[in-house]
């Protein structure tokens, strides 16, 4: 029997796996995907914090207006007593509370660890209004919160030392006035004032 003249013996090289270039490329692509996913998750986390803070501030302001306004105004002698009373009355839902909630001397903090204070505001000889002040807000959250809350619903909105007496804050203004974080800690204080 003669060999088939068309059959050619081909010697195949054994498969040696992927080289360093292929493995390196896959590793870089994996790192890029991980960084992208983590950045998106971080953005969603920040948006959640902002939404929660806006909701908490609006709820507290609405609660104070509905429960503590008398014909002679908001009858509190200090920010400490007003804040403590609002907490004791159950008007600070969603906030982190320090101290005994029922004592009238407890304090509250925001999501970022900054103190939140409610202060009576005097006008024409009596406390006709009040303000809610929130500290240690990171720059990105400050811009979002100031813009969302600065829609004219409040008498005045202050970003750090800049007061907007018409209660309106644009994204551009908030971006200019909210300062950058220091060592990962927010440096901004937002104050929302209500008259009446």
UniProtKB/TrEMBL annotation:
<keyword id="KW-0472">Membrane</keyword>
<keyword id="KW-0812">Transmembrane</keyword>
<protein>
    <submittedName>
        <fullName>PilS family plasmid conjugative transfer prepilin</fullName>
    </submittedName>
</protein>
<dbReference type="InterPro" id="IPR045584">
    <property type="entry name" value="Pilin-like"/>
</dbReference>
<feature type="domain" description="Type 4 secretion system PilS N-terminal">
    <location>
        <begin position="48"/>
        <end position="195"/>
    </location>
</feature>
<dbReference type="InterPro" id="IPR014911">
    <property type="entry name" value="PilS_N"/>
</dbReference>
<feature type="transmembrane region" description="Helical">
    <location>
        <begin position="20"/>
        <end position="38"/>
    </location>
</feature>
<dbReference type="GO" id="GO:0016020">
    <property type="term" value="C:membrane"/>
</dbReference>
<dbReference type="Pfam" id="PF08805">
    <property type="entry name" value="PilS"/>
</dbReference>
<keyword id="KW-1133">Transmembrane helix</keyword>
């Amino acid at each position: 029997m003669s060999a088939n003249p068309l059959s050619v013996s081909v010697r195949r090289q054994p498969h040696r796996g992927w080289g360093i270039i292929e493995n390196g490329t896959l590793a870089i692509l994996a790192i890029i995907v991980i960084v992208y996913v983590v950045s998106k998750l971080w953005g969603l986390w920040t948006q959640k914090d902002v939404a929660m803070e806006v909701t908490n501030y609006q709820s507290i302001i609405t609660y104070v207006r509905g429960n503590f306004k008398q014909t002679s105004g908001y009858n509190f002698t200090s920010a400490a007593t007003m804040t403590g009373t609002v907490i004791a009355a159950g008007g600070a839902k969603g906030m982190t509370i320090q101290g005994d909630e029922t004592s009238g001397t407890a304090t509250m903090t925001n999501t970022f660890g900054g103190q939140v204070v409610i202060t009576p505001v005097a006008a024409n000889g009596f406390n006709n209004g009040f303000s809610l002040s929130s500290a240690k807000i990171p720059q990105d959250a400050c811009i979002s919160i100031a813009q969302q809350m600065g829609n004219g619903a409040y008498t005045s909105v202050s970003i750090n030392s800049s007061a907007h007496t018409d209660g309106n804050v644009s994204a551009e203004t908030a971006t200019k006035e909210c300062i950058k974080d220091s060592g990962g800690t927010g440096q901004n204080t937002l104050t929302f004032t209500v008259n009446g």
